[in-house]
Amino acid sequence: MAVGNSTIRSSLRILDLFCPQRLRWTVSEIAAEMSITYATANRYVNALKSSGLLEAERGSLVLAPRLLYLAELVHQSDHFAHAVRATVDEVADQTGETVIANRLVDHSIVGVVRAESHRVVRFSFEPGQRMPLNAGAAAKAIMAFLPASTAARLLSKADWRPMTESTITNPVAFDAELALVREQGWAESTGEVEQDIYAMAVPVFFPWREVAGSLCLCGPTFRMDGAARQRCLAALREGAAGINRHLADQPRPRPQRGGQA
C-alpha cells in the first residue's frame, strides 16, 4: 500500500507529541490534540506501529525501542555531532556546568550533544529534545546569525506561547534581542526555558560563514554571578573556535533543485 506525503507528515507530527512531560498517549488523545478523527489517528498510529516506531503498553502508546537504534545511527552519521562532542565534554569539565551543542532542525532548536554537570544542583536536558525558536540563549545564538529572510520566514511560523513567564513572546522585542546578540557575538537568557536557570550561548559556523549551530552553557542563576559568567563565556568562545576548526573540512552542500536549501 502506497503511503502519501500527508500520511508521513501526520505520522511524524504524532512522534513530535512525545516529550519528557508526556511519555504516553492514547489514540483518542492524539486525535483530540491534532484535531482529526479517531479513525484517521488510528490509521496513522497503526502505520507507526507497523514501522516499529510506536508500541502499545498498558492501554496507551509509547515510543518503541527501535528509535534508540535510529538515534544511534544519527549520532554516527552526523558530522556536526562528531565535530562538537569532544568540545562539549571539555567545556563542561572546565566550567562544571551543563553544556549542549544545538542545531536548527525544521522549525525547532534541537540539542544534539550534551555533557551534564556533575553538581547536585544542575540543569538537565535530553539530547534530541526540541525547543522553540524564541526561547533561550541557544535559540537566539542561532537565529541571530541566520540570513534575515530565513529568520523572518521561520519566525512567521513560530509558536510564541511562553514556556515560562520570562519567555519572549513579542516578535518586535525578540528582533531587538537578536540585534543585541549580533552586536556582542553571544546570547544569554534567564528563566526563558526553565525558571531559575541562566544560559549563555555562542554561535558556531561552517567555513563559508553560515551558522551551523550554537554551543550553550546552562546553570542555576544563584551560581552564575558576574565572575562565573565571564569565565564561562571565555570557555564557550574558546570551544566554539575549536568547533569552527573541526568544521573546516565540511563540504558546502549543493543547492537542491527548485531553489530549496
Describe this structure in words.
With 261 residues, the chain is of the alpha+beta class. Helix content is 44%, strand content 19%. The chain is built from nine helices and eight strands. The strands form two sheets. The protein has a six-stranded antiparallel sheet, with helices on both faces. It has a two-stranded antiparallel sheet with strand order 1-2. α1 (5-17) packs across α3 (38-50) and α5 (79-95) packs antiparallel against α9 (226-246). The protein is globular, with a radius of gyration of 19 Å.
Features of the shown structure:
alpha+beta, six-stranded antiparallel sheet, globular
Number of beta strands: 8
Order of helices and strands: HHHEEHHEEEHHHEEEH
Low-pLDDT parts are none
Helix content: 40-55%
General form: globular
What is the averaged pLDDT score? 87
Beta-strand percent range: 15-25%
Helix tally equals 9
What's the story with the biggest beta sheet?
6 strands, antiparallel
* Class per helix and strand makeup: alpha+beta
Terminal Cα span: 31 Å
Strand order of the largest sheet: 5-4-3-8-7-6
| Rg over CA atoms | 19 Å
Topology, element by element:
Elements (H helix, E strand, L loop, with lengths): L4 H13 L9 H8 L3 H13 L3 E4 L2 E4 L2 H12 L1 H17 L2 E8 L2 E8 L14 E2 L5 H7 L4 H9 L14 H14 L2 E4 L6 E9 L5 E10 L5 H21 L15
Antiparallel strand pairs: 1-2, 3-4, 3-8, 4-5, 6-7, 7-8
